[in-house]
Amino acid sequence: MTSRRILATASLVAVLGMIAAACGGNSNTANPTDSGSGAVATGGTYRTATQEFGYTDAFDPTGEYLGSAWGLYSQLLLRGLMTYNHKNADLGGNDPIPDLATDPPEISADGLTYTFKLHDNAMFGPPVSRVITSHDVEYAFERINLASLAAQYGNYYCGVIKGMTCSEKKLAPVSGIATPDDSTITFTLEQPTGDFLYRLAMPATAAIPQEVAKCFLKAGDYGRFVIASGPYMIMGSDQLDISQSCSQIAKNPISGYNPDKGVTFVRNTDFDPASANPDSGGNYVDGVQITINSNVDDIFQQIQQGTLDGSYGDTPPSTVEQQFATNPDLKSGLHADQGDRTWYFTMNLLAPPFDDVHVRKAVNYVIDKAALAKAYGGSLHAEPATTIEPPAVNPATATYDPYPSTNSAGDVAAAMDEMKQSKYDTNQDGKCDAPQCKGFIFLGRSSSPWPNLNTVAMQDFAKIGLQPKLSEVDTTTGYTTLQSVKKLIPVSLVPGWGKDFASPFGFDYFLFDSRAGLTCDTAVDYSLVGITADKAKECGVTDQFNAVTSEFGPIGSVDSKMDECVAKSAEEINQCFADMDKTLMEDIVPWAPWGWGKNLVITGTSTTHYEYDAFGDVISLGWVSVNNGLAPVNVA
Amino acid sequence: MTRYIIRRLLWVVLVLLVVVFVTFVIFFLMPSGDPALRFAGKGAQPQVLETVRHQLGLDRPWYSQYFSFTRNIFLGDQNGWPGLGFSFATRVPLKDILFERMFVTIQLAVGAAVIWLLVGIPIGILSALRPRSLMDRGAMTFALIGISAPVFFLGPLALYIFWYKLGWLPGTGYKPLSSGFGPWLSHFILPWCVLAVLYAAFYARMTRANLMETMGEDYIRTARAKGLSERRVVLKHGLRAGLTPIVTIFGLDLAGLLGGAIITETIFNIPGIGQYTILAVRRLDLYAIMDITLVAAFFVTFANLVVDIVYAFLDPRVRYD
Lengths: 636, 321
What we know:
The structure holds two protein chains of two kinds.
Chain A: H1 2-23, E1 45-50, H2 67-77, E2 82-83, E3 97-98, E4 106-107, E5 113-117, H3 134-145, E6 177-181, E7 184-188, H4 196-199, H5 210-213, E8 232-234, H6 246-251, E9 257-258, E10 262-267, E11 287-292, H7 296-305, E12 310-311, H8 318-326, E13 334-347, H9 357-366, H10 369-376, E14 382-384, H11 412-420, E15 438-445, H12 450-463, E16 467-473, H13 475-483, E17 491-492, E18 496-498, H14 504-512, H15 514-517, H16 533-539, H17 542-552, H18 559-566, H19 573-588, E19 591-602, E20 607-609, E21 612-613, E22 618-619, E23 625-626
Parallel strand pairs in A: 1-11, 1-12, 15-16, 15-17
Antiparallel strand pairs in A: 2-3, 4-5, 5-7, 6-7, 8-10, 9-10, 10-11, 13-17, 13-18, 13-19, 14-19, 20-23, 21-22
Helix pairs in contact in A: 9-11, 10-12, 16-17, 18-19
Chain B: H1 2-29, H2 35-38, H3 46-56, H4 62-75, H5 94-129, H6 134-148, H7 151-165, H8 181-215, H9 218-225, H10 230-242, H11 244-258, H12 262-267, H13 273-283, H14 286-314
Helix pairs in contact in B: 1-14, 5-6, 5-8, 5-11, 6-8, 7-8, 8-10, 9-10, 11-14, 13-14
């Protein structure tokens, strides 16, 4: 018995010992930082975190197509001829301003030639540390033109600038770009392009130093070697030994960026503020740290705890959002900014019953946009949309609302009136009653909060007799399903679309220009606006195409209108695209837009100044200010 | 025994090949199985998509990709041996990433294993020696709670209490041992404990049941009749037989964790294999998914082998020749 007792006691001691050891570890309490005074302070480090960078081209500026990456390039790292002030749209954040260029360009009378003068004291950061010349800007275009670099938005330049095709096998001068001296560059265009300055503010066009980038001629490979030309550089850039051979350089990427761990930006020691546009950023902080954190709840707990200064792209959990929205002490840290993004129902012009424009119009009337926005998370996340182009993208559409309803709750009577004109309402009672009105696929997202939106949509559909079969899938599957033309998904609530740049062309081009957005397996024009007999044949939907065109006439197209609009001068372009928007909303009706998305950013009390960058649709790191007094550390 | 081990090692290789093959097939049958779409931008033009496909090696038939992948594993690739390919998302070789992350996961798994063994087995022994006592009931209540409380519940709860509210421990993340023993331990202790709770509870129940059964065996009665001390009876005769099944389970549990403690690493933001699994799946990062599957399968099959060998030493009745 004694032995048993000893054994039991020993075991108990072991257990208690373990528990004590486990729970009594080192005390390392994070002290919350002091509350911000509201004044713009300089110094310190903006510390943030995100679940994943999610880059589409491994952070190589030539091909990278992610808005948050554009934000980092434009605000901190890179300089092109044009940039933005990196503020909200109502503060001019969507208007290009000169950056490497000393002034706006000289534009020829025919609108085909743009000549820029460059600052003569703008420098690349370490280890290149030399003056940026016009040849470095030209080199960026040569890279866009190189097929192997797969420039993901090369269409904005190829076919636009003379000599650019995006299909070159080797780096070579572009015939439409001339660099008569180190500080002059001239572009010759194929046709007038009213929003060309927007395109020159895209990161792919920023100056690139050939001495490093020449080593990286495959898509994505330059992403860990990006040399700064902006006010900040990636920490450790100065350690890059570019005197080595390309194979040696490629083995030792810049230490301050690891795509799976994080990135740290520090001040570019070669940056001369006198060479920059002071409107593009205050550059208050000494550094920016973005850490990868797989636990999104933890990111926001750390913000509240003071170990992070704010969020970066991740949507806060609803409990955190509520806390910040209701607590007066925290409220100033909640920022809901226009995302220049439209959420919409896409309706397939070849799929019954949506092949009938009256059905599509009826859907536009019946949807309860307010309920959808509420289901999406409320006014901090979205507001009811009235048309395709968000007002910040095209101010000329600001008051346009072709399907109005009280409180954006839908107009069932108007919807039924519209449905009565459809061939699918056989008894003309305002409800779709043909066999095609039942059992068609309605594709929705399965992740929260989307099932709630799908429910609202199903209820709205029922009001006009539409009885689809709801198919909920994950977001990636949803998009890839819609992208396949031959799947002919009749209606879907999956998609949303954000601008590339704030010209309406930068919003509409891939969506509705059938030459850009209508490919058989990678379509973005999910509704098939502008589909032709040839394209229908190529994509294997000839029968449906013939059936619809024989019944309802040709499929609407805006390709020629797109050409007309893009050639307009900067002053006329918005109205032209507003007219196109009207054609789409009232004549072709491929969409039922329901919401204009917002971006939610949470900042902690250590963040004393906040701005939102309308171009990157992220927090503006060039204007952010903190009072933590910390020096940047390498989080990669 | 040597012949047995060689035979089993060959089986390990065969199993790994089959696992990789099945994963490849599943990947290519997935509805959203074209990763090039993920890396070609939102308005991907056909020529861009084609370039991306070519550069990722996705323009070849899946069996050709499978062959290259398996060949590189055995013969190595441009980044050395084993050839584990590169990440589609980051365009960097996976070998270094996975080895670095594997080291982190090993620290997590081994630390948790030590805790659950040191907590679970003594609790099980105490309960077995005093069945239906207050101690036994308390221990089994702990076991029930431990088994019922999933990591995704316990993890955030522990963080909330010990970091957010009490401030006793730092938050999430990982500090290598090179940054100091204190920071290293303080970042690991909570994930260790959380991960260990489930296993400790399970091991306590297992130990209790096995030991109670063993203590009722004839040879235990004989040992007592021979006048051996109770301590010797329990430790030498009871535990040896009672814990043998635990060895099997332990090997497999540890191997499973070495393949990635996905939820724990995600909640505690530990850059291990489990966290990388989530990233890889999200990104449709084919080679990363393949490599992780391979690593997990390797640990499980290898642990099986080790367990079988250890079994032979623990249980004299087991022989493999």
